[in-house]
Amino acid sequence: MNQTRAFLIIAWLMVATLLWMEWGKERSAPPVVATQNAVGAVPSADQAGVPAVPMAPGTIPTPVSGPGPAAPVTVTTDVLRVALDGGEIGQADLLEHGRSNKDDSEPVRLFAQDPANYFVAQSGWVSNSGAAPSHEGGFALQAPQREFTLAPGQNELVVPFVWTGPNGVTIRRTYTFRRGDYAVQVRDEVINRGTAPWQGFVYRQLSRVPRALENAGPMSAAGYSFQGAAWYSAEDKYEKRDFEDFVEDGPLNKQVNGGWIAMLQHHFFAAWIPQSDATTTFSLATPTGGVGTEYLIRSLGPAVSVAPGASAATQARLWVGPKLIAGIQAQKVPGLERAVDFSSYGWLATLGDGLFWLLAKLHGLFGNWGWAIIGLVVVIKLILYPLSAAQYRSMAKLRKFQPRIAQLKERFGDDKQGFQVAMMDLYKKEKINPVGGCLPLLVQMPVFLALYWVLLESVELRHAPWIGWINDLTARDPFFVLPAINMALMWATQKLTPATGMDPMQQKMMQLMPLVFGVMFAFFPAGLVLYWVTNAGLGLLQQWWMVRRYAEPPAKPAASAAK
């Protein structure tokens, strides 16, 4: 396979992949779901022993003891600003991540109460042996102030709440916020001062409506990023379900030891992480409330049994923030790094993990993500050099015998089968491998696709500048400079590639490829186009060198043809 055909194959593979991705994006657009009851509403594998869990405002099945929701308190750390009322965190601003790359940009609001952006984290209790506080009310603030701010030199903030039931049972809930940490510690201590045993189940859930994409143009990065629920268990590992398939794929009722549940979106996510030794039940629901149809993922459990005069505690972490690899890994939670959804395919996600690791190391060396991408191309080129050298040797040998192949084609005319047999005999006699140039192509395609997802999902590159006009590597080139350079490099590569034996149709297709790729890359993230431009530039230099090194005069066909 010569360089031209290999180039055509990779071009059409990329076009087919992008068409498939565009179709998938349209297919997974946030759906409009009709009013319905909860899906997967059974809250536990043991249906008889667990009471119903409140689903949404106005649907509590049994009275809840205590007052209604308290007025929210505000908690501000160096990275978070949240509003919470004891049972619900209804607003969360990510102070180090602006909505745009302007200095005065408002921070990203991950949790919100307004109907168009509704997204909250909730936690409460249910009990068959007495009253219990739900996320909708019951907890009262146990502090004189309603604003908590992390002071300079202070490492953590503790926000205490308490619920007291009529049966002598008290639940003390504390939220702990730490400096530089997006994981909020939530601890519940149950104290039974009554005369009868009390058993309850803690539940923790994330509820939201799908948000409209801020950037929904062609090749929009946010449009291809997964949005929906995800969960992890030791048995089945990482699983996910987008909003469209919440109902269609059936209910979820999974008993899990440890694990986690999450709601994912482009660059950011929220996750409840129960204790690693806790037995919980994961479920999905689509309740209807004041904001319309919501999408909810819940963790129910563990069960807590408290004898009179005794106490027990359970705790969990709530991650509310960006998909920062280092911060996620610091949680030491199995599988949580999969929240950075590098691909729908496990093997491609594994490759993406490796590419990001290398990219992060290069960023530590250069201090700039753009130069890290260029360094990544250089490393990949060095690794693939033996394969590339074999490819160019194979192509050089094929070029040498192109005149003889052309003469065979002319001699056999319309006898295609005879031509194929004669050509294979020639390959065998001259020890030519006709697919010798394919292996580098097959290796580079997964690398390119995996890197696409890395650049798509990595919040570390969000709003990250390179040089001059490129001030966000995850957005398209604002002046289309990189796509234009890529067009020029592709044109130069074509001129350097001999077109011997190519039919007129192939020649026309090749002439259109620079324009097709230029238009397509105009909408790609600048970081990905930078990768491709660097790869094309180094490939052009490498091809120039290889052509000079391995070029041989074409074989003279006259003597062979006469035989």
Automatic annotation (TrEMBL):
It is a multi-pass membrane protein. It comes from the Bacteria. Its main location: membrane. The keyword Chaperone applies. Coiled coil: none annotated. Keywords: Cell membrane, Chaperone, Membrane, Protein transport, Transmembrane, Transmembrane helix, Transport. The keyword Metal-binding does not apply. Residues 73-358 form the Membrane insertase YidC N-terminal domain. Residues 369-547 form the Membrane insertase YidC/Oxa/ALB C-terminal domain. It is found in: Cell inner membrane; Cell membrane. Pfam families: 60KD_IMP (PF02096), YidC_periplas (PF14849). InterPro entries: Membr_insert_YidC (IPR019998), Membr_insert_YidC_N (IPR028053), YidC/ALB3/OXA1/COX18 (IPR001708), YidC/Oxa/ALB_C (IPR028055), YidC_ALB_C (IPR047196), YidC_periplasmic_sf (IPR038221). The chain crosses the membrane at residues 369-390, 432-455, 512-533. Interacts with the Sec translocase complex via SecD. Specifically interacts with transmembrane segments of nascent integral membrane proteins during membrane integration. Required for the insertion and/or proper folding and/or complex formation of integral membrane proteins into the membrane. Involved in integration of membrane proteins that insert both dependently and independently of the Sec translocase complex, as well as at least some lipoproteins. Aids folding of multispanning membrane proteins. Belongs to the OXA1/ALB3/YidC family. Type 1 subfamily. This is Membrane protein insertase YidC. It comes from Lysobacter korlensis.
